[in-house]
Amino acid sequence: QHPLRKSSTQFFQFELFPERGTGGVRKYGQDVKHKKSLTIYIGKAEISIDDMDSEVQKPRSAHYISDYKTHVFTSVVKRGNSTVLHLSSHVEMYNSSSLPFRIAVLGDDKVHDLGIVKIAPKSTSVNGSGGK
Are 42 and 69 in contact (CB under 8 A)? Predict the structure, then answer.
């Protein structure tokens, strides 16, 4: 386990494939036949991704972390030859409609209610005159 700082990036690679002799062999994309799995620990909670390649381009997933009473969102994307896992713990929403609306996320096979997004206040100019 490796602790991560807030807003940080951690690079790693999966272990090389064993071959005859010492060391290992690096295999690329089409040569890799096994699943690349990953487990992330947040407090006492575990977020497991069984197969990184099968998660690429799927919609992001929500995971409730009871220790912190918050949700963590995961998404997996390809960037060149790299597979990137994005973790985020917040979502910013701005309601520019005239109606408030309720937000919920699907995670861990449950619906988690996040609350109501209220109408955004009218913007004013920098000096507070409202643009008159």
Answer: no
